[in-house]
């Protein structure tokens, strides 16, 4: 792998349920099974009376994947969206996100009536060697244009590595 070659920093998988309780626990168990690691509950940031949500109440579940787990899950997630992503899903730094409407679209996942059907968001953060200088605690520096990724570099990397069609 060349120094200038982009790489996947992390893949964040998020299921927004909109309510706490039994449904959220089912979603947490399902996501844990799908990604193969522990999940984290996410709390509501604001109170919304129309939806019956209080601030601080857990309403979503997420998991952050890195390394080989991220790569394996991403391959399965691309199959769920038929290896096609619009170019508008990419930001200016090459990162991208897409949604999976039903978890049963993932390969080798069967429908279970007890659990139901959940959708999920998949957010992929790309980086290049040298990104740590912008995140580290000591002697933090601004990223130069040589280190920072562009939208086109992110698109090219995903096309080349995963064979995804960018529309």
Whole-angstrom Rg: 18 Å
The helix fraction, in percent, is 10-25%
What is the assembly state of the chains in this entry?
single chain
CATH 4th-level superfamily? Ribosomal protein L5
Uncertain segments: none
What's the SSE pattern? EHEEHEEEHE
Total number of strands: 7
- Number of helical elements: 3
Strand content: 15-25%
CATH topology value: 50s Ribosomal Protein L5, Chain: A
Query: What summary fits the major beta sheet?
Result: 5 strands, antiparallel
Across the major sheet, the strand order is 2-3-1-6-5
Straight-line N-to-C gap: 27 Å
Q: Given the helix and strand composition, which structural class is it? A: alpha+beta
Outline: globular
Examine the secondary-structure arrangement and name the CATH architecture.
Answer: 2-Layer Sandwich
Number of structurally distinct domains: 1
Per CATH, the class reads: Alpha Beta
Mean pLDDT: 91
């Amino acid at each position: 792998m060349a120094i200038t070659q982009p790489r996947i920093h992390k893949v964040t998988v998020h299921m927004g349920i909109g309510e706490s309780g039994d449904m959220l626990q089912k979603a947490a168990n399902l996501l844990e099974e799908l990604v193969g690691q522990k999940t984290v509950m996410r709390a509501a940031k604001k109170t919304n009376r129309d939806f019956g949500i209080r601030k601080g109440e857990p309403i979503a579940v997420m998991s952050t994947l890195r390394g080989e787990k991220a790569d394996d899950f991403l391959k399965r997630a691309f199959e769920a969206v038929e290896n096609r992503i619009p170019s508008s899903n990419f930001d200016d730094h090459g990162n991208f996100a897409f949604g999976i409407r039903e978890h049963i679209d993932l390969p080798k996942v069967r429908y279970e009536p007890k659990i139901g059907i959940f959708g999920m968001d998949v957010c992929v953060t790309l980086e290049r060697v040298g990104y740590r200088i912008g995140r580290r605690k000591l002697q933090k520096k601004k990223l130069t244009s040589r280190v920072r990724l562009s939208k086109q570099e992110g698109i090219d990397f995903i096309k080349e590595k995963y064979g995804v069609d960018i529309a």
